[in-house]
Each structure stands twice: as C-alpha cells, then as structure tokens.
Amino acid sequence: MTTQISGPRGLPLSGNLLAFRKDPLSFLTRAASEYGDVAHIRMGPSRHAYLISNPEYIKEILVAKQAHFKKAKGLQVAKLVVGEGILTNEGKDHLRQRRLMQPAFHRDRIAGYGDIMVEEAVNHIEAWKDGELLDIHHEMMRLTLAIITRTMFGANVSSNADEIGHAIEVGLQYISKKATSVLDIPLEVPTKGNRDFQQASELLDKTIYAIIEDRRNEPEGAEHTDLLAMLLAARDEEDGTGMSDKQVRDEVMTIFVAGHETTANTLSWTWYLLSQHPEVEARFHQELDEVLEGREPTVDDIPSLPYVNQIVQESMRLYPAAWMINREVVENVEIGGYHFKPGEILMMSQFVMHRDPRFYDEPDRFKPERFDGGELLKRNPQFAYFPFGGGPRICIGNNFALMESALLLATIGQRFRISRGENEPAAIPEPVVTLRPKNGMKMTIHKR
C-alpha cells in the first residue's frame, strides 16, 4: 500500500484473525462503521485484507477492473469440492464454461421447472402435521435438494437425501475452516477433519458420476430436458467442442452444492422473519388467498404476487446467502484512489452493505414494502444491494433461485403458518460458506 489505511487493532502475530473468526458478521459491521469505506484487516502475520464498503468501489472491483483480481483463498479451497467449475475457475476457462452453461439458465428455459418445484413442495409438506415442531432449515434443505436433483439431473435421490445433505455440509464446513486457518494442513495428513471430508467427497463423487454414466450409456434418441442433458449436449460456439466427463462433473457438483444450500437458507430466514412480524405475515397470506384462491401457484402467477417477491428481496437483504465476496489482487490496481498490490485481499460483504444506513432507512428492520415499485433499487447505487454478486461472475442461477423461492413460499404459505415459540432462542446466523441458521431453526407448523 502507498496510502495508509486504518483499521481495527489486532494482536501482534494473528492480527484480527481471531476476532474475525469468533464473530465475522459483527466484526465486519463494526469495521465498516468505525473505519468507513476502506478498512485494513490483518489476517495473520503477513496477510493483509481490506474491507471495501463503498458501492462504487465494489463496482470497480467486480466490473470495471475485474481483470486485476482472482478469486481469493476461500474459493480456491472450494475446488476441493466443486473442482474447476464455473464457481471457481478463472479467465478463458471461466468464459468458455459460462458460454456453454448460459443457455440452460435462460429465463424461458427454467420457467419449465416451475411445475416440478411446486409438485415437490406439495409432496414434501404432505407429511407435516398440525402443531408439529420441525427444524425448518432441515426441511428446506431436503426440499431444495429434491428439487435440484429432479430439475437439474432428472434423478430423484430422496431415499438418501440425508446422507447427501450431510456430505455437502461436511464439505462446506471443511472449506470454511481451511479458508480462514493460519495452518494449512495438507489433505494427505490423516486428521479427523481430513478423513471426514474425504469420505464426504467420495460419496458425492460416486453419486454424480453414477448419474453421468447412466446418461452417457442411454440408447441414442433418449430425450431429456434437464440441465445434465444440456451440459452433455453443449458445444462451444467458437470451436465446436463439448465438455469432458470431468468438466460435466465439476459443473454438476457446483450446481448440486450451491443450487440447494443457498435457496434453503433464504427460505429458512424468510419463515423466521415472517414469524417475527405478524403484520407482514398476515399481508403475505392475504395476497396468496386473493391471487391463488386455493389453487397451486404457477410461474405465470409470480408477477401477480408482488408482496411475495418483495418478501424474498427483503429476506435476501437482511440475510444474504452469499454474505461476502473476496478477491485477491494479481496486479497493481487503484480502487477509489487507493492503491493495492498483488497478494492483498479485498473483501466485500453483502451482509454489511445491505444494512448500510446510507442506503436503507431502519436498516435492521424487516420491511418488504421498501422494494415496492423498484424505486429503492433505482435510487441506490447498483452495489448497495447485490445478493447474487455482480459483473461477469454474477450468479448464473439467480433467476432459478428467485423463481424457486417465490413458488415454494406461495405453495407452503397457502397451507401453513410457521411460528417460532416464545421460549425458542433467537435464530443466530452462522457465516460458513453461506449464511445459514446456527444449530438449525426449530419452528411449529400450523395448518391454515
């Protein structure tokens, strides 16, 4: 750095690492509040990071000057789970994979998955009993896993969904710990964490490769409309080549892991927020009753459910599944008048930006109507609200996630009200790879 940037004081060797790992969300929120748009954070003896809390600076990093950066350690570590998929690869490889995958996530194509989402939701909640106490986060994880496997792979793994869900959780926890650890213990060292992770990886690989192999071995002429079929058939417009089994596996694994965890978290936090705000919940149910009149929702109904969509937007504002984006500088760069050099990390937190009082009145309050009419998003800078990231690496599945969230809320909300008992402790966000509720979320189901 050529310009001195202040930040929270830390310990002589570990710097701010311990304080950050103890409570990342509070630490980052305080750092932004006390030190402004750019705060210096030491992540160990020689790792220098900078929290960027200015939307225009974030736009420079993710859009205008994105070629000066690569994905930081956390997503490099994620390659252990998702390989060289669209989430983790860089440069020309990323551009090629995105070209190949983009058609599969076109808005018109994913609209065809809406009926499956609703059908899976109806099937899932048939087992719910009035007055039953459930871990709603576990329920949402199972439901979104069933949806992602059926819509993406044309396969149903509900029979071993718990086993697969546990394997994914082990992988995400491992990535999170390894990404923030001072000690980099090689995977070959037989620690308990390494052994658990290897077992989880083997299970996920076995599941994914089995689905790919079955599809490759099908007789010619077999027709499928799922994502796997599109990945296997995709050809690069520049050279006509397709994906190898390894490339397909990496993209499938990326979708498998990211495609249900994030939406499950959004839904869990949404049910929690609705339970804490009865006036919002009442208006939510009223809109469902008036628009749907007791029938199942469809994709065509989504534009007629504006309050449901506002609830989703506001839930993602307060509890964004992707709560932070990190970039490592690869060549000298100037951002907002500050100079950064290779090896330094720039941190951008959706959790922090989405609660910035410069852009949101009563920033900690759940107020879906703030998104009514879209005026807020037009008035604020682009990167004051970026739940799906931004720039050329914006989440490719954003439209899929928004559609799924709206349809599942509508389907479940028609039949049930979900409450959190007065004696239940407040839900605590746990920022692992995604922002999930710590220790699950016990809630009571009430038939409407």
Automatic annotation (TrEMBL):
UniProt cross-references to PANTHER family, sorted A to Z: BIFUNCTIONAL ALBAFLAVENONE MONOOXYGENASE_TERPENE SYNTHASE, CYTOCHROME P450 FAMILY 4
Name by which UniProt lists this protein: Cytochrome P450
Cofactor: heme
Keyword Transport among record annotations: no
Organismal lineage: Bacteria, Bacillati, Bacillota, Bacilli, Bacillales
Species per Swiss-Prot/TrEMBL record: Brevibacillus fluminis
Residues annotated as transmembrane: none
Annotated heme binding sites: 395
Keyword match Phosphoprotein: no
Organism domain of life: Bacteria
Keywords: Heme, Iron, Metal-binding, Monooxygenase, Oxidoreductase
Family: Belongs to the cytochrome P450 family.
Record GO terms (molecular function): heme binding; iron ion binding; monooxygenase activity; oxidoreductase activity, acting on paired donors, with incorporation or reduction of molecular oxygen
